[in-house]
Structures are given as C-alpha cells and as structure tokens.
Amino acid sequence: MTDHRFSAEAQALRRTARRELWIERILLAAAGLSAAVVVAIFSMLVWFCLPLFTEHRLGAVLAWRWDPIHQHFGILPMLITSCMLTILALCIAFPLTIGICSLLHGTIRNGVLRRMLLFLVHFMTGIPTVIYGFVSVFVLVPLLRWVFETGTGFSLMAACLTLSVLILPTMVLVLHAELDQAEARYRLTAEALGFSAEQTMRSVLLPACRRALIVTVLLGMGRAVGDTLVSLMVAGNAAQVPHSLFDSVRTLTAHIALVLATDSHSMAYQSVFAAGLFLFLLMSCFQAVLRFWAKSGASFR
Amino acid sequence: MKRSLFWMCCGVVMVLLVLGFGAGPAVSGALDAFKGLEGTVQIAGGTAHIPVMNDAAKAIMTAHPKIRILVEGGGTGIGVQKVGEGLVDIGNTGRALTDQEVAKYGLKSFPFALDGVAVVVHPSNPVSNLTAKQVQDIFSGVITRWKDVGGNDAPIHLFTRDEASGTREVFWEKALKKGSVAPSANVVGSNGAMKVAVSQDKDAIGYAGIGHVDASVKGIVLDGVAPTQENALNGSYPVTRKLYMNTKGEPKPLVKAFIDYILSPEGIEIVKKHGYLPL
Questions:
Q1: Complex ipTM, two decimals?
Q2: pLDDT over 70 (residue A301)
Q3: Which of A126, A236, A264 sits opposite B81 (nearest CB)?
Q4: Helix (H) or strand (E) holding B83
Q5: Yes or no, beta carbons of A239 and B74 under 8 Å apart
Q6: Do B77 and A247 count as a contact with CB atoms less than 8 A apart?
Q7: A48 or A252, which is more confident
C-alpha cells in the first residue's frame, strides 16, 4: 500500500520533471530561434551591403548629401536625425514617465484619480501609431506653424512631440509594473521609518528600481528609433541635417520607407540596405552603452 | 494595440463585404467579357491610378461575384517591382517603363489615360500665374519668398514627392527641366498627402496630378496655360504623362479582360469621372 502510494508520488514527480524539461526545451528553442533571426537579419543586411564595401562605394553612402538625381547618396543626415529625434523624444518622455509613476506610487496611491490615470495610460498603449500621426498632421503641425511662424510645421519638433506621446505609455507601464513589486517589498519598512509617500518614492522606490529605469529607457528608445509612420507623416522628410527644431527632417526609417519603392538596381535602392545596417548598429550601440552604464552604475553601490 | 488592430481588420472585412456583395447586379455590355471567368486580379502601384482601378473593380465584382480584384497603392516604383517579381498581376506606373525595366522583367505596357501635373498652392494665395522659370527657381531654392513672385511677404514652403513617385518624375523632367530641388523641401508620399499638406498651409507650394486638384488647392497657371485636362489633351499644357497598366508578359484571360474593361467605353467613363483624359 505504502509502496504503491510512494510509487504514485514518484511517478507524479517524474511527470512534473519531464514536463519541466519539455518546457525548458521549448523556451530554449524559442530563445535560440529569436537569436538566430537576429543573426540572420544582420547577416542578410551585411550580405546586401557587400557590394557597397567591395566596390568602394561606402564613401558615397557615408556622405552628407542625399540627392539621387545628381548621384549623391549620403545617408548621414538621416543617421544624425534619427539619433537626435530619439534623444529629444526621450528627453521629454522620460521625465514625464518618472513624474507619472511618482504620482501613481507617491502622491495619489489610492482613489479615482489613480484609476483614471492608469486607465488613460492603458488606453494610450492601444491607440494605433497612425492615429497619432494623423492627429499630429491636422492639429499639431498647423499649431506649430501658427505659434512659431518658422517653417511649415512639419519639423523635428512636431515629430519629437508626437513620438514622445507615442512612447510614453509603454515606458510608464514598464516602470509602473516594476514599482508595484518594489512597493510590496519596501513600503511597510519605509512607512515604519516615518517616510512620507513622496520621500519613499524618491529615496527608496526609485533607487530600488534603477535597473527598471534603464529597461524603460531602452524600450522607449527602441520604439522611438524604430518608429516609421510618425516621422514619415510629420517630420517633413527633407534629407538634411537639422539646424533648428523647426527644420524639416528625415529619419533613417522614413528614408527606407520612401526609397524602398525605387528601381531595385539603382544605387538609391542599395543605400537603403546600408541605412538598415546602420539603424541596426545604432540600436545595438545604444543598447550596449546603456547596459554597460547600468552595470558600472550598479557596481558603484 | 492588438485589439484595435483586430477591430480595424473587422472594419476592413465589413467594407469589403459591403462593396463585394451589397450592391445589386448591374450587368452591361463591357462586363459580359467576364462571363465564365473567376479568380483574383491583384493590382498595385501608382497612386494616381487607384480611383479608376477601384471603380472598375467595384463594377466588375458587383456583376461577377466570383471575381476578386484587389487594388493596392505603393507608387510607381512598387508597381514595377511587384509586377516584375510576379507578386501582382498588374503593376501600375505613372510613367513609361525604362528600357532596363522592360528588359529585366519582360513587361508589357497598356497606357489608358493622360494626366497632367499641376503646380498647386493654397486657395487663398494671391499668386495665380507663374512662369516655368519662376517655378524652377522656387523649387531649386533661388526664390524663397512669395513677395518675389508678386505674392504676400511670406516665406515659400516647398513640398515635393518621394523618390519613387511617377508624379515627381514627370514634374522634374517637364516642369523643372531636370533642375534640382532644394534639399530643405518637405517630402510627402502620395498625391493625397500633397493635397492635405498644401491645403493646410497658406504659404505652401507643391505639385499633384491634375485629376487630384480640387477646391482644396489652387492650380497655378503655368506660362499662361491653365492646368486643365483640355489643355493637357491638346498639348498646350506641357507637364503631362500617361498612366500605364503593366503586365509581366502576355496577361492571362482574366487580367486581359480587366485591361480591356478599362479601355472600353465604360472604363473611359470612369477615367473621365476622375478627372483624367482617356487616350
């Protein structure tokens, strides 16, 4: 009898173990597949860019002038624009994220206002990008033109504002989830020490979520660099290095979208792959720098 | 995100259903050619073609529910690529194919309409006449203020089209005489986007297919010739182009029937309705 029960338990245990093994295998396969896809994308980009390297035309792509009619295929203005736009959008969205999260976890921890704010953020994540672009074209762009009276309104500024609204909800949700966990861990202790809600937020929760802050920035950045539609619709798409916030600019992603439709044997078409490669490298660099920074920051403590 | 996408898809399916099966049958002469045919015709390419293609597709699909016709945009460049790679049956272009394109893909062209490209400004802009030279100077960035061409004391806001646009190609060749376009010009991706941009900005100047010019923008009289379809047809307005459908080799029967329909009297009515001129 006992033997039988024992063996049943052992069997159940073995079954669980086997199931876990399978789960592990499936997860491993998924991770492997994702990694393989990334590697495949990178190699494909390099493969398509090879003619640029072997035929010494890399210089033509790494130039400051885009004017395909006159055989100028420089994509550096777009590269600069993508970097600037991303950093500017983050400069707006990140403080706002911190602010909203501080509200949610510090000042208004309960009540209708908090629920409304959370609902709003969730709702904003669900709005398709094209809606943001559309509203910007009809509201923000004319407004910028009317208020500042420089340029057409289709500008770095318009793209940057729209983009920051676009990435804000994602960033808030990531940080909010992390803060929820930290709060469960530290709130009681902090209150016992006599911290006010705001003090807890500033001196306990935020420092505890340092890594989450980095992840938040990375995610926001990923969306900002990768977004095509918003910059295509509101940035103006002039292939030039911006000298002011009100200049019409073109990002790498918008550039790819605009040029991809050209004759597939033209140099312009090939330069698109270079643009893709640099976009890929740009993202990787951003990621590497931030992760490195996060790690070294952690070791200071 | 996912949920709204789902609803958008639902919406699109509903619209397709309504378009496909909602209206009653109205079989007439030119549509008889589709009798006994079924299958799908996929069309992509030039954005100027879309209204004509859509109306023809609607008429055909209403009379012959077994035929499906899918119309996409993408621009002239996409049209060449997709039909060349065999991804669609008809690739529309807003310009004649280049020799390389014909040689590479073995494409066959069917011109069906004439369209002019007009210089457009905001309706409230006092400037109504420009010379070709002035237009060239404006687009190359030599003239930067409306005052210099008899308008308001305001900066000129330039709008141009993307690299793959057939409209841009024609405008650049025939209006700008292959001159340069200032790098600071805004770039928009379609005739519709051009209209939206120019109609919202009182200092804007751009260009669009004459078929797209309506009350929201003002067509500029170029060298004393108004940008109308009549002037385009009799040759006095110089900035014109033909609209083409292209197939890879000889079209299959259903695709051939579609092309014949566009060229039939009924097709010509559709072409006229959208402001283009039949050939």
A1: 0.75
A2: no
A3: A264
A4: helix B76-84
A5: no
A6: no
A7: A252
Pair A81, A21 in one domain: no
Does A259 contact B164 at a Cβ distance shorter than 8 Å? yes
pLDDT recorded at residue B100: 87
Q: For chain A, what is the radius of gyration of the CA atoms?
A: 25
Closest among B36, B87, B31, B105 to B61, alpha carbons compared = B31
Residue B227 belongs to what domain range? 116-240
B203 → chain A, closest CA residue: A152
The CB-side HSE value for A179 (13 A sphere, CA atoms) comes to 27
The whole-number pLDDT of residue A258 equals: 85
By CA distance, what is A139's nearest residue in B? B200
Residue A167 — very low, low, confident or very high, per pLDDT cuts 50/70/90?
very high
CB distance from A145 to chain B under 8 Å? yes
Residue B153 belongs to a domain: yes
Mark whether B121 and B219 lie in a shared domain. Answer: yes
Q: Are residues A120 and A199 in the same domain?
A: yes
| Strand extents, DSSP E, chain B | 39-45, 67-74, 90-93, 107-121, 129-130, 157-161, 186-188, 204-209, 218-219, 221-222, 240-248, 277-278
Q: pLDDT category, B10, cuts 50, 70, 90? A: low
Residue B170 confidence (pLDDT): 85
Range in A131-135, A245-249, A293-297, B235-239 the model is least confident about: A293-297
Residues A145, A183, single domain; the answer is yes
- Same domain for A173 and A247, yes or no, is yes
> pTM score, two decimals?
0.73
Contact B5 A128 (CB under 8 A): yes
Of B4-18, B96-110, B168-182, the poorest mean pLDDT is in B4-18
Q: Are residues B167 and B222 in the same domain?
A: yes
Interface test with A, best of B163, B169, B202, B205 (most A CBs within 10 A): B163
pLDDT digits (tens, 9 = 90+) for B23-47: 444 445 678 788 888 888 999 988 8
* The token pair that represents B208 in the structure block: 């669009």
Q: Nearest by CB to A236, which of B5, B75, B186?
A: B186
CB pair distance less than 8 Å for B184 and A263: no
Question: Looking at the domain assignment, is residue A281 inside a domain?
Answer: yes
pLDDT value of position A264: 58
Query: Alpha-carbon distance B123 to B121, whole Å?
Result: 6
Q: How far is B247 from chain A (nearest CA, A)?
A: 17
Rounded to an integer, the average pLDDT of A136-157 is 88
Helix (H) or strand (E) holding A67: strand A66-67
Q: What is the mean pLDDT of chain A?
A: 86
Any domain includes B59: yes
> What are the tokens at B167?
């409209």
Per the structure block, which two tokens stand in for A169?
């909800």
CA distance B161 to chain A (A): 9
> What is the chain B residue with the closest CA to A268?
B163
